[in-house]
Write a structure and sequence with these properties.
The protein is an alpha/beta fold. The protein is 41% helix and 20% strand. The protein starts with a strand and ends with a helix.
Length: 374
C-alpha cells in the first residue's frame, strides 16, 4: 500500500487535555506505526511552553470561550484559510481529516482550505448537544460545506443523531480508542479481586459545569454516613476548581476529599487505585474516561446518558440520573457493598476496552482514507 500523508486538524490539542487531543494524538501515532505520515495541525496556545515535536504545526492563536456547558476553544488570526491552504499544498497531503467537524474555527476554515487545494476532506464529529441555534440558522451554508466532504464520521450514535437533526450526510460511526497497554489493570484487579481497605472513589476530568463534580460532592455525606472511611480523589483542573474546593470545605468534607490537580502520564495509577470511578457528566458524545477506567479494570458509576450507554453497555456500569445526588449516593454505596459485582465489572470492562484498542480503531479510520482516495 502506498503511504498516505494525512493532516489531522484539531482545535483542541496538547497541552490542553481532553477527548479530542487524546484521540488525535493516538490516531497520529497509530498511522505512523502503520507506515503513513501524520501531521497534527492545531493553534498556538498561551499554556504551550514546551517545544512541539516535528509532526505538530500551529496556525493562528487559540482563545478559550464558554460553550455547551463548559470551556471550548476557537482559533483566531489573519488569513487562516489562505495560511492553511499554503500549508496543505506545501506538505502535499493526501487527506485532510478535521476533528470537530463544522466547529468554529478550524472545523470550517480547514475544509475550505482543503477544497481549494484539491484535497479530500474527512471530518470526525466529537460533540453531542440537545439543540443548536447556530446549526438551525446556518443549516444551508453548513450543508453546502458538508456536501463537499468525502466522508463524515461520528464517534458515537449519540453524536451522529445530534448532527443528523440538522444536516444530511452518509454518517458512519467509528468510536474513540484507548491505549490498552498504557491503561491496564493492576495484578489483583486483573483477576477481579479487590483489597479490603477503606473505599477509594475517583472523579477525573476537567472541572467545569457539564462534568458536574458538584453532584458527587453533594452525595459524599450520604456515602460517608454508610462508609465513614471513604475517600474521594478529584483529578483534574479547570476554571471551576476553586469553587468546588470551597463547596467541599463548606460541606464539611475536609479530609474525605482530596483535590490532586492536573494529571496526564499518571492517570492509570489513579484508576488502578480506585474501587469506583464516578462520572456524573451531563453532556458527552462518547466517554473516553470510561474506556480508560474499564481498561484499568475499575468499576463505574456514571450518568445515564445515551453516549455512556453506548460505551459501557447495559450491564457493565451502574447508570444514575444526572444531577440526582441522593441517587448517586445510593448507587455508589450499593457498588461498594457488592464486591462480586465489582469483580464482574472489572473483567467485563476490560473486555469492552480491548474492543476499542487503538490499533483496531485506526484500521477502521484507515479504511475510510483508502476509500476516499481511491
Amino acid at each position: 500500500m502506498t503511504p498516505l500523508r494525512v493532516a489531522l486538524i484539531a482545535e483542541d490539542y496538547y497541552p490542553q487535555l481532553g477527548g479530542v487531543p487524546e484521540h488525535v494524538h493516538h490516531l497520529a501515532r497509530e498511522l505512523d506505526a502503520l507506515g503513513h505520515h501524520a501531521t497534527i495541525v492545531t493553534s498556538h496556545m498561551r499554556m504551550n511552553g514546551d517545544v512541539d515535536p516535528p509532526h505538530v504545526r500551529r496556525v493562528g492563536t487559540s482563545l478559550v470561550i464558554y460553550a455547551n456547558g463548559g470551556v471550548a476553544r476557537i482559533t483566531v488570526g489573519w488569513r487562516l484559510t489562505a495560511r492553511l491552504e499554503a500549508l496543505f499544498r506545501k506538505e502535499r497531503f493526501d487527506i485532510v481529516h478535521v476533528h470537530g467537524g463544522l466547529n468554529p474555527t478550524l472545523g470550517i476554515v480547514a475544509p475550505r482550505a482543503a477544497v481549494r487545494a484539491g484535497i479530500p476532506v474527512v471530518a470526525t464529529f466529537h460533540t453531542w448537544f440537545p439543540r443548536s441555534i447556530a446549526l438551525r440558522i446556518l443549516r444551508r451554508p453548513f450543508q453546502r460545506l458538508l456536501d463537499r466532504h468525502a466522508a463524515t464520521i461520528a464517534v458515537s450514535s449519540a453524536a451522529q443523531e445530534a448532527m443528523a437533526r440538522y444536516l444530511t450526510a452518509p454518517w458512519e460511526v467509528i468510536p474513540n480508542g484507548v491505549d490498552t497497554t498504557f491503561f491496564r489493570p493492576g495484578l489483583g484487579r486483573a483477576s477481579g479481586r479487590f483489597e479490603q481497605r477503606p473505599p477509594q472513589l475517583l472523579w477525573l476530568g476537567r472541572i467545569e459545569p457539564r462534568n458536574d463534580l458538584g453532584t458527587v460532592l453533594a452525595a459524599m455525606p450520604s456515602i460517608l454516613e454508610r462508609h465513614p472511611a471513604a475517600k474521594l480523589t478529584v483529578v483534574g483542573d479547570g476554571p471551576w476548581r476553586a469553587r468546588m474546593e470551597r463547596a467541599a470545605r463548606r460541606g464539611g468534607l475536609g479530609p474525605s476529599v482530596h483535590f490532586a490537580g492536573y494529571a496526564n502520564g499518571d492517570r492509570p495509577d489513579y484508576y488502578r487505585g480506585a474501587d469506583v470511578y464516578v462520572c456524573p457528566t451531563k453532556r458527552a458524545s462518547f466517554g473516553v474516561t470510561l474506556l480508560e477506567a474499564m481498561a484499568c479494570g475499575t468499576p463505574l458509576v456514571v450518568s445515564d446518558i445515551p453516549a455512556f450507554r453506548d460505551v459501557a453497555g447495559q450491564s457493565h456500569a451502574m447508570f444514575v440520573p444526572p444531577g440526582d445526588a441522593d441517587a448517586w449516593a445510593r448507587a455508589v454505596n450499593a457498588l461498594i457493598d457488592d464486591t462480586d459485582r465489582r469483580g464482574t465489572m472489572a473483567q467485563e470492562g476490560r473486555r469492552i476496552a480491548e474492543r476499542h484498542a487503538w490499533p483496531l480503531v485506526a484500521q477502521r479510520v484507515l479504511a475510510v482514507y483508502r476509500r476516499v482516495t481511491g
